Amino acid sequence: MSNQDKLIIFDTTLRDGEQSPGASMTRDEKVRIARALERMRVDVIEAGFPIASPGDFEAVQAVARAVQDSTVCGLARALDKDIDQAGEALKPAASARIHTFIATSPIHMQMKLRMQPEQVIEQAVHAVKRARGFTDNVEFSPEDAGRSETDFLCRVIEAVIDAGASTINIPDTVGYNLPHQFGELVRTLIERVPNSDKAVFSVHCHNDLGLAVGNSLSAVLNGARQVECTINGLGERAGNASLEEVVMAVRTRQDLFPCDTRLDTTQIMTCSRLVSGITGFSVQPNKAIVGANAFAHESGIHQDGVLKSRETYEIMRAQDVGWAANRIVLGKHSGRNAFRTRLQELGIEFAAEEELNNAFSRFKDLADKKHEIFDEDLQALVTESGLESANDWLKLVALKVCSETGETPHAHLTLWEDGEEKLVDSVGSGPVDAAFRAIEALINSGTELQLYSVNNITSGTDSQGEVTVRLQKGGRIVNGQGADTDIVIASAKAYVNAINKIIQRDERAHPQLGDV
């Protein structure tokens, strides 16, 4: 493809997606998602914000080492320390990009930065030049461009392109714009900035009004050739533009779009399930492309039409986005090689043999409980294997609950706490409540339960339940996940997982905070 024919997909699931409350990912989880994105042929993977914490630095560095075919990007404010840290983290990358930004809207410059417009331009130019000392691939974003003055945007963009920025990203940071308005802004900037032909124009849209995908597509129709997006639309507040929706809209409507992506769209479902499992953010059934109902037909009229000709009610094939997953027939007699082979077909690989052994042991336990094991079960199983750490302070050893009509539910719990097994009994309004109260009776975490969610992984009464628990303490929010064919046990696993995350707190700077 030529530059005009190709639409670059910039995935920021590992950076902006991780800013969703409770969606923090470990280094190894980020690497797993990055490898899945690479298999999908995503052009640019924004791996994180290296200055935020030592953990984020190490995660970006690990992704830079692991990924070979996609460009790995690190975010940096327009500060020397941020840029230097990003450059250092990206050193192992086969292809690296530094993404630096500074706010340009009047409200941000006055209230947040407390800087004059000329100072902002000077800082932006300095940041781009410093980033060029590490890589020729530098992206610049005028934060809150959607509420910035057009004349000032033109001045900033012209200056940073002259300084060496090869990608100019226009963010609708607060999701304020409407599609026709945002598309016109992008077109105006491309037309008015004298050196716009020396850079690729990009967009980064938030979904506060539910318009992130619409704004992104409008921008593409008006000249943008990069879209920043996330798997499942993950992101802070209402989220970001959904990668799968942007990609499939462009692919499906080639009669309107003068460009296309290079993505292998059959990997979309695998990535969606992986991100959902790792973050604990479930995909709603009616979500476009990746929701359980996306290709389901209830209406008799629709069913009749689809049976006669798929195109009557389906504008794309389910197989094209990875819905044609094979049902596997693995059971308790299946061997390690068959297990490993199927996981490889699903794009799941292990860094160490010990991880495979752990997952295989869990698979055998599950096979004793379920007659049929599906791909979704395997993905949940591998995700749960990654939730446990040798450094966990708290582990669930055993749980017995009694729930009887007319009687108060009761839980008998055994926990491994910092090297010692402890037993406790508790009652509650239900078996899950009793289990949670038992855990709290032992540890007194001081957390507040903000969310309790249960989803079935597959169909059938023997399906595993996937539980997400969200806890809050001292302004910090974490998600915990657990899966089991017993919902109460899955719930206890999720609660314990969340408690371990609260205990192992990792102070992180927010990319939009700090003195710029």
Keywords:
516 residues; 14 strands; 4 domains; 8-stranded parallel β-barrel; single chain; TIM Barrel; alpha/beta
Briefly, what CATH class of the largest domain?
A: Alpha Beta
CATH level 3 topology of the largest domain: TIM Barrel
Low-confidence stretches: 297-308, 512-516
Task: Give a count of the beta strands, DSSP E runs of length 2 or more.
Answer: 14
Q: What string, H for helix and E for strand, traces the elements in order?
A: EHEHEHEHHEHEHEHEHHHHHHEEEHEEEH
Estimated structural class: alpha/beta
Strands of the widest sheet, in order across it, are 1-2-3-4-5-6-7-8
Task: Report what the structure shows.
There is one protein chain. The protein is built from 16 helices and 14 strands. The protein has 516 residues and is an alpha/beta fold. The chain folds into 4 domains: 8-279, Aldolase class I (TIM Barrel, Alpha-Beta Barrel), CATH 3.20.20.70; 294-324, no CATH class; 336-387; 394-503, Double Stranded RNA Binding Domain (2-Layer Sandwich), CATH 3.30.160. The chain has an 8-stranded parallel β-barrel with strand order 1-2-3-4-5-6-7-8, surrounded by 9 helices. Strands 9-10-11 form a 3-stranded antiparallel β-sheet. Strands 12-13-14 form a 3-stranded antiparallel β-sheet. α3 links the parallel β3 (71-77) and β4 (96-103). Mean pLDDT is 87; it is low at 297-308 and 512-516.
Précis, in short:
The protein has helices at residues 27-39, 54-66, 80-89, 106-113, 117-132, 150-163, 179-192, 212-221, 243-252, 268-279, 300-308, 336-345, 353-369, 375-387, 431-443, 487-503, and strands spanning 8-11, 44-48, 71-77, 96-103, 138-143, 167-172, 200-205, 226-229, 394-402, 410-417, 420-427, 448-456, 465-473, 476-484.
